[in-house]
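User: Predict the full complex structure for these chains.
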Amino acid sequence: MAAAALPKIVPQLERIILAKIASGKLVLPVMPVIATKCMPILRDPDYQQKKLVALVESEPLLAAMILRSALSAIHGGAVVSNVDQACGRLGAQTLKALVVEFMTRELFRSTDVKIQAVSKKVWEHSLAVAHLARDIAALTGGIDGDVCYLSGLLHDVGKPVIAAMLLDCERQLSRDMPGWMTPDAWTATVESLHRKVGVAIAAEWKLPEEVAAAIRDCSDYDGANRKSAANVVRFANAIAKREGFTTGPVDMADVEALIMVGRSMIGSDDAVIARLAAGLADRVASAA
Amino acid sequence: MPRILTVDDSATIRTIISKNLSELGFEIEHAEDGAQALGKLEEITVDLILLDVTMPVMDGPTMLEKLRATGNKTPVIMLTSESKRSIVSGAVKLGIEDYILKPFKPEELRGKVLKALRMDAAAGGATNSPADAAIAAVVPPTASGGAAGARQFIDVLVVDDMENVHKKLRTLVPETVSINGCVSAREALQMCQERVYRVVLVDLVMPDVNSVALMNQLRVLQPHAAMVALALRTANDIATEVKSQGFHDVLMKPFDVDALDEWRCKYFEVKDVLSVDDNVLSCGEFSGRQDKLDGYFSRLKNMCRDLFEKLASACYEDSIVDITRVPLHLEKLPRLVMDMDNEAKKFGIALRVVGNADVKKALNALVETASLPFFATVGEAKAA
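Assistant: Here is the predicted structure of the two-chain assembly.
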């Protein structure tokens, strides 16, 4: 994406958004209330299922997600008829992952067809990264799989937010400036800004620093902290791209380089990567 | 033996590489920078280059670019503390085989060197890392996620130039123990690339080959296999000697039935008794001597503990343990199940037990095990 090809309005837009982020004036999406209430219950070592069930039952979409997951083959496929049974079957760890998924998924929803198309790709890519990151963490040991999963889901969270902002601009400007932004310019704007917006969301949602680190930079590993969640997400991000879960044009030499470095940094090999990637498409499709 | 050129300005790194790779029997050449390496390559040919990035006079990427410009396609492994994507990506475009980040573990160096030197034979081959072993429990099986690149598991590889040794061993060991045999180092290396072995028996006197160097090479390909020396009976303390050389154990020729039975008990009885499929742990039967029964129960318990940890990492909340084939020892069996349940609980895993009516009767002896969910078949346990 050559910067020269961008219309003048793009850098202007970038400046406005960055200034708003710096001054704290950018309106960021809020964490769904239901998630803010569920997470403390699930983090409690003496997790009380009844409290959680009462909350979940007040949010039909989350309840439906939990019921669907409990009924799936991976959890035995046995019949569950209510949220209480479903929560009992899934357990705190799986429920935590589902709540994270629920709150993140909301950011990727849009009633606008254009944004929905972009968001769908980003969401599927994020799911692929999240699944891979959690598996890599489990295999490597000593890395929090939940943090890796959350970081994987959120590492591109700024993209749909920027996409929504651009659509808003388009609605305001298109009457006076038809064709104000080419698809390439649109992609370049999203790519150049999404990390900063993502970090701002992480701060707004008070997410752990490891998650913010994974959002902040996905292009180079942190050599000082080899087995960090952020490095796991970088590695997973590259594997996901090689497996076809991309959100835009990809330089395959870059992807291969990130996989090579990640293999050595985290301690993995080709066979492990092949096994991790096997069935990834099915897993993403069933979670999407 | 292949010749490897290591290009690094650090004498320490060159020494470490040299030490590790010489043990595998490779011939090592050195260069302190890219320019010196290019000069050396005008005089000699090598099979592999280990290349640092940051060096005085000429850095690694520049040397690689000049090397490729001459049409030289020698495999290159980048071995560096540089992890910047832009630099590694440039090297990828120039066709590097692999990358090792400093500081590195000797196993990583050895594994990647051997892989790079056998690109054709190793295509699609897997290394048997601990992560690979664990992965089956972590990644849920899918229709498309089968055995791409998976290798066949065999119990024993016998590396001995005398074929009658393979034949004799075959007659003395039960058919349940699978055995491969080969008569040369080349065949052994090939087989170790293609399959996974539990025990590799290496004759100490192989023609034209240093058996210790061969064993070290095989160990890189089979990091989890026990390396056992095959030696002729002698008055010397051969066991101590071979262990100091890196072997796990020694087996004397001609084979003694009792010693062989002991050896078999040590390596196979228990390891054969637990298989895992998804979250279902199936205990196999015990077929050894009665005095090994305690060891069987104790190792079964330990193996379950490790597996529960992996199941928990894979977000499983429950596990089915099929103990139908465990010996019906009225004291040891309930104790084993109770211990398993305690271990499972530590990882938040609920246990469901599968067994026949006799097993259920045995479990009723303890309050803790009598109350566990019990099923006649794995299918019923899954449906519950």
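Residues 272-383 of chain B form a domain with the Transcription Regulator spoIIAA fold (CATH 3.30.750.24).
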